[in-house]
Amino acid sequence: MASPTTEDHPPHIGIDGINEETQQISEKDIVLEKGGEKDMAPLPGSSSIHRSSSRPQLDVSGAAIQGNFEEKDPTILLPNQSDDISHLALDIGGSLIKLVYFSRHADRQVDDRRKRKVKERLGVSNGSRRSYPILGGRLHFVKFETSKLNECLDFIYSKQLHRGGMDSRCWPSDAPQSENAVIKATGGGAYKFADLFKERLGVSIEKEDEMNCLVAGANFLLKAIRHEAFTHMEGHKEFVQIDQNELFPYLLVNIGSGVSMIKVDGDGEFQRVSGTNVGGGTYWGLGRLLTKCKSFDELLELSQRGDNSTIDMLVGDIYGGMDYSKIGLSASTIASSFGKAISENKELEDYKPEDISLSLLRMISYNIGQIAYLNALRFGLKRIFFGGFFIRGHAYTMDTISFAVQFWSKGDAQAMFLRHEGFLGALGAFMSYEKHGLDDLMVHQLVERFPMGAPYIGGNVHGPPLGDLNEKISWMEKFVRKGTEITAPVPMAPPATTGLGGFEVPSSKGVLRPDASKLNVGVLHLVPSLEVFPLLADPRTYEPNTIDLSDHGELEYWFTVLSEHLSDLVDKAVASEGGTDDAKRRGDAFARAFSAHLARLMEEPAAYGKLGLANLLELREECLREFHFFDAYRTIKQRENEASLAVLPDLLLELDSMTEDMRLLTLIEGVLAANIFDWGSRACVDLYHKGTIIEIYRMSRKKMQRPWRVDDFDAFKERMLGSGERKPQPHKRALLFVDNSGADIVLGMLPLARELLRRGTEVVLVANSLPALNDVTAMELPDIVAEAAKHCDILRGAAEAGGLLVDAMSNIQDGYKEDTPSVPLMVVENGCGSPCIDLRQVSSELAAAAKDADLVILEGMGRSLHTNYNAKFKCDALKLAMVKNQRLAQKLVKGNIYDCVCRYEPAS
Ligand SMILES: Nc1ncnc2c1ncn2[C@@H]1O[C@H](COP(=O)(O)OP(=O)(O)O)[C@@H](O)[C@H]1O
Ligand SMILES: CC(C)(COP(=O)(O)O)[C@@H](O)C(=O)NCCC(=O)O
Ligand SMILES: [Mn+2]
After folding, report:
1. Alpha carbon distance 414, 841 (integer Å)
2. Which residues pair with 329 in a beta bridge?
3. Which of 84, 80, 30, 34 lies closest to 59 in space, CA to CA?
4. In this structure, are residues 272 and 261 in contact, taking their beta carbons and an 8 Å threshold?
5. What does 833-849 look like in DSSP terms, one character per residue?
6. What keywords appear on the UniProt entry (predicted)?
7. pLDDT digit string (tens) for 269-304?
8. Which protein residues are within 6 Å of ligand 1, measured from CB?
9. Which of the 8 DSSP states describes residue 730?
């Protein structure tokens, strides 16, 4: 996934509505939200962190369908619709118009009691340390063909992007919409079409220098987006970690209609050193004439089936099948592109269009690679970044360019490509609005999400905006008919190798699909409140994912696990929404959308940036939210909480009767045993048919013999209780990253929290901002703590001290009052809505709570095994989980399913 970074985290994969049409989809989502929200528990994350669901109301007044809806592409115009603030910048090139626009939605901040208390206690800022705030919102990337400028104007109009509260040069502006609205634009079309924009949209175009924009866009992407740059050699894609301090100098080669080569020495420091008129326009223009192809993608597609040796003159053709080894040329090297066409008695019709397309593609890509290398050589540059839409994420084009650079530089220079390849200029134009703060944004404040339609339509806009959830579902039904049938891994052809010297036929066939699905760019969510977890020992080397899915065997396995789990998940999700026909339809659409993403990722695992298991698990949650399943396990969670709270008093009595040593062991055993309640694990879900919650819990506890598979309990105990006469200082503050609802939190983590509190350690329970599987959320926790506190003075005193309990609670009559004020128990949200956690992007609450913490306890498979198993912290860290998956148990700990992990690492 992209943003899936090199200082850099894997981009989050998520979903957001159809990309290009993303906003249209989102807009109507709201209509449904309006009707459906009243019977929905308030969402815990409806704050700045609530990344997916805070959407504006749709104003459909005055909406009109232009043309007949039955027709192919009717246009729906929503003249009165606009997001709170939208901003737009354009790059109007010779071939394509690129749009970058920003949408900001109303913050539906839920300022509940818990949040207020946490803010008070921890002094949480809103994450912004600037004199003007950066806005939270989303950046969208959309393109149109320049010849279809009208479609582009309709799109801008329907979304009212030209009226987004912009005030001359600056944004944001709270000023009323200006009559003299200005749109920043670059590219030749900014000059050519300025009058048309004025006429059609009433806006003036403010022209920005194209080279300036290209450089600003490239610098922004290379600094702020994780997994932006990658190499592509012999069909193998690898993301490159760019150290911000070592970015400059580099050569930027933008392959649009024509080609620019720019030596970049810093922000705003550059020189256009070269260029060539043989570029993307040449391939498409000449290709169209020679093959009669109707679209660029068709031409590119053709090349995949081509054999250029029928038309190119090879060294072997000249040397009678021999290599010209003296100068390092093999028989299969192209001596002269299209050279065979001279010597044969053939007409154009006698050549296959496939072969022509391939020959042309090779000629142009190779030529650009070679010129780029010569310029890199001229200025002593080692790194060359290639952008522009000619590349179009096409494996063969990239391989050819890489080959040329590698071959001519003898491996000294490196070709790299950019995921946002064609959007550099548009992004740069966008950045040229003053005071948007975008250039200050840091990598951890950006979350990339991949829209529902991403596997199908990439960044192209066809037809009308999708109106509402209903249309979105219809779209899934229409276009993704086979979605739910994808239950087994899609076979993937092993990448063929071309051999450095040979380089004969495309090595990566079958990657490009004719439906333009190859634009691997998501919607960038700007979340200024996200922060890097301050207790990470080294954020630069931190990698959240333990399992790297670029290993194809791993990908296949997890793909199958998630596919097989899908029908159970859909059942739960549909049931959580009352099992209505509407819920069933949404459930089906969810399954199609998620399966489609899985299939896309099977086909190209790096499509959304570097892919880890955590990204897949998050993608699943985002897909659910996309179809308005906001808490699929709600009833299950409630039922399990109640059952567990009923037995909590007995457990606490049992614990209180033990010695300190025994109690600590029993508590850790309890956490591990209760972690069995995991609705995300196939094996566990099967298990739940075999007994009641309490029976399973007891059975699980009985099996807790030490040594566990990973067992650092003795070291942890020594830190907690000391040895012999030595009594260690208790920790000052512990952060407990909690996992599941029910027994897990109530009978596992809360009793452990109570022990820490009893020893004078402040406890912060860190829980999800949004629901994911049966994980407990920060919104749900205060009620659970309040219930537990009814049975326990320690918890009660601490919860009061932490502001978790309302005053009425303290009147409970049990005659007990502590003499000394209790250390506080608090709850903070972690900033995510996934079973895993990427500690480079956490809530400001959590970051604030971490400042005084000297113990981190991570619980559960998602947070302590799939992610963070290898994470190193500045403070003591304890990782506790039951492994509820056989393969993971084997791979990670050389053990078996239901083995336990108790990994303790003192401060590093
Ligand atoms: N859908 C498409 N339609 C036309 N050209 C495309 C398309 N996708 C990729 N291309 C290629 O991208 C080139 C345009 O790249 P771009 O970076 O947008 O440059 P420009 O700013 O000159 O339009 C085209 O000349 C063509 O080679
Ligand atoms: C989704 C999970 C990470 C949740 O585990 P938890 O963090 O609750 O312990 C885990 O259930 C999981 O890895 N499930 C998929 C594997 C399986 O079904 O076996
Ligand atoms: Mn969980």
Report:
1. 31
2. 324
3. 80
4. yes
5. -SSS--TTSB-HHHHHH
6. Kinase, Transferase
7. 999 999 999 999 999 999 999 999 999 999 999 999
8. 93-96, 145, 187, 256-257, 280-281, 283-284, 296, 388-390, 392, 422
9. P
